[in-house]
From TrEMBL:
UniProt superkingdom: Bacteria
Domain SnoaL-like span(s) in chain numbering: 4-129
Source organism of the structure: Jiangella ureilytica
Protein name: Nuclear transport factor 2 family protein
Pfam family, one: SnoaL_4
InterPro entries xrefs: NTF2-like_dom_sf (IPR032710), SnoaL-like (IPR037401)
Membrane-spanning intervals of the chain: none
Length: 154
């Protein structure tokens, strides 16, 4: 493998890791930094065609009921073609939700990140991200869009 490809693969791996740490740490500036300014994000819970700013705002609101979240990525398949690349990465993500009345609930979600990446003057960035193959065991009365259903205490 050529040295440049090794360097690119390591940089892309670190980019994907920085994304996870930014989301889990609710560091929305670090979150913005992993994407191109015109990136498009197709998120399972927020819907398709979101900008980085729209997603940062959505996640900040959605996480109001999240006690802790831990993105764990693995088995990335990366294909590099000059200054562009694609990556398909598994993500398993346990989430602890506030249920109200001091109660919490752990649930798990899993998905694939399908990314289109570009080399920029600031290094590799995500230009398009789609979440696919989503599964979870989230409580049926909870959604990130609505929070707790009417009738439950916050």
């Amino acid at each position: 493998m050529p040295v440049q490809e090794i360097a690119d693969r390591l940089e892309i791996e670190q980019l994907l890791i920085r994304y996870c740490h930014a989301v889990d740490g609710r560091d929305w500036d670090a979150y913005r930094a992993v994407f191109t300014s015109d990136a498009v994000i197709d998120d399972v819970t927020a819907g398709p065609g979101n900008s980085v700013e729209e997603m940062a705002a959505f996640l900040a609101g959605a996480f109001e009921r999240v006690v802790v979240i831990q993105h764990a990525i693995s088995t990335s398949r990366v294909k590099i073609d000059g200054d562009t690349a694609t990556a398909r990465t598994i993500c398993h993500c346990p989430v602890v939700l506030r249920r109200g009345d001091g109660e919490t609930r752990l649930f798990f979600q899993g998905l694939w990140y399908d990314d289109e990446l570009v080399r920029t003057s600031d290094g590799w960035k995500i230009a398009h991200r789609a979440e696919t193959g989503y599964f979870h065991d989230m409580p049926p009365d909870f959604s990130f869009e609505r929070g707790l259903e009417e009738g439950e205490q916050s």
